[in-house]
Amino acid sequence: MIEVRRASSVEEVMVAIDVLDRIFGAHEGWNATRDRNIEAYGADPALLAIALDEGCVVGAVGSDGAGTVTAVGVDPAYRGHGIARQLLGEAEDTLRQRGAHSVGLGAVDDAVDFYLRCGYVPQLLVQFRSEVESPQSIVQELLTGPLRDHEVSQTEFQGSPQLWVQVDTVDFTFKGQIEAVAPGTVAGYIMSKEL
């Protein structure tokens, strides 16, 4: 039987990080936040929910304690048994107990349907890789092209524009149309849920 609970030690955190490393491998999003996650979970192991099969960690879900789920992963051999849903519920409980009223997360394309089934609502985030020299011209092309009929808000992150597109459904064809406007344009679904 699988046990789902919060991590209770730095040792459990590091074992869970090894599992997440195997699951995500060279995934850009995981690698960009890995060290920051280790630091946060090491300082507060309860931010990491873990699933154990006879004492072996087979999945983990981390949060920042304020309103963001930072990592969700279950060993492929254990998928399809509701473990990720249990882990996500534990992370949501942690956030709720710490005063959060909503939760958000970035979703890899393969996991979007899972989050929709868990009650999350999508929003499309459009960003630009650092090698893009003039993202503002691409923003204008997007706003007059594929995004012209959508509600879009613009923010900035590390000096580069971000576009937040309100969507009713997840549409990977639409996502592809946005990314095809110019090299270095990256779109991804951000999922959120009221707690």
TrEMBL record:
Keywords: Acyltransferase, Transferase
Organism expressing this protein natively: Actinopolymorpha pittospori
The keyword Acyltransferase appears for this protein: yes
N-acetyltransferase domain boundaries: 2-139
CDD domains in the record: NAT_SF
Source organism phylogeny: Bacteria, Bacillati, Actinomycetota, Actinomycetes, Propionibacteriales
One protein family per Pfam: Acetyltransf_1
UniProt KW Acyltransferase keyword: yes
InterPro entries: Acyl_CoA_acyltransferase (IPR016181), GNAT_dom (IPR000182), YpeA/RimI_acetyltransf (IPR050680)
UniProt-recorded Gene Ontology molecular function terms: acyltransferase activity, transferring groups other than amino-acyl groups
Name of the protein in question: GNAT superfamily N-acetyltransferase
